[in-house]
Design goal:
The structure is a homodimer.
Chain A: H1 4-8, E1 15-17, E2 23-30, H2 34-42, H3 44-50, E3 56-62, E4 69-76, E5 79-91, E6 95-102, E7 110-118, E8 124-131, H4 135-143, H5 146-163
Antiparallel strand pairs in A: 1-2, 2-8, 3-4, 4-5, 5-6, 6-7, 7-8
Helix pairs in contact in A: 2-3
Chain lengths: 165, 165
């Protein structure tokens, strides 16, 4: 049962935009301080709990340093999906730049730049900008339900951040 | 000592151009039929003999199918350089599309499309087009001596193709 506060609190939703024809930008506010959000993005045990949108996520590799590789496998009801990439920059607690590739389209590689902004009131804004090689790849990602998938994962993250308080 | 034929035969040189601000295109003719050139590009034992420009090359991974990974380590006098990527398309004997990343700039990923054109006279033209995420990355690659490195490797390949005849 929701409390009065929860019922009136505006939901934090993903805002998506396309700053250029090869980019997608998303932003989302979390009701948690930046250090806690950073931890949920960088501790493999925590990341595994929300990145897969509630599905089982196997973190095969997560070498969170410049040049390190990452590989996550999501076991969703509709199938198993592998994702991988490499870290270009890791700057705690505010910025990660990494390549991103889905096994279903191997050799199509986009670059994600994620920043965590401390809003100064105990909340954090996560801004993610993804750059593709072509507009067609960008549009394909948008049409694949990227924003909806992100929304699902972030909803699970909301609950995880509460339990970390 | 060169024979008269070798002295008068025009040298095959790399022609490089920039078809767009995020691309580099190179082409090079080889005095060998396409099947032989394809073999020299796809048989790890042969590739290891020329890709490193005469330096020792360790092929750590070369899964030459769509979705497969590759990783080569060149042991040059000035240092050890790792390169890696993933195959987007492998179409014998004419086309390979793959991602390409140098360990020195992790997370900067370009896409190479290589085609082998049968010139019908026992020669083969290899055309390689590389697409970068930004113009700056493209210019950085050009300024790193990309064409010269390619020329060195192809010169070794010329000699290998002769021995394969």
């Amino acid at each position: 049962m929701m409390t009065q506060t929860e019922m009136t609190k505006p939901a934090n939703k993903v805002k998506a935009s396309t700053p250029s024809e090869r980019e997608v930008r998303t932003e989302r506010i979390f009701n948690a301080p930046r250090e806690r959000v950073w931890k949920a993005f960088t501790d493999p045990k925590l990341l595994a709990q929300w990145w897969g949108r509630g599905n089982k996520l196997v973190i095969e590799r997560m070498e969170l340093v410049r040049g390190g590789h990452w590989r996550f496998v999501e076991h969703a009801p509709e199938g198993v999906h592998g994702f991988e990439g490499r870290y270009r920059e890791v700057t705690p607690p505010e910025r990660i730049v990494q390549s991103f590739e889905w096994d279903g389209m191997p050799g199509y590689v986009c670059i994600e730049t994620m920043t965590l902004e401390d809003l100064g009131d105990g909340r954090t804004r996560v801004v993610s900008t993804t750059l593709f090689h072509t507009k067609e790849e960008r549009d394909g990602m948008l049409n694949s339900g990227m924003t909806e998938g992100l929304e699902q994962g972030y909803a699970v993250l909301d609950r995880l951040l509460e339990t970390m308080a």
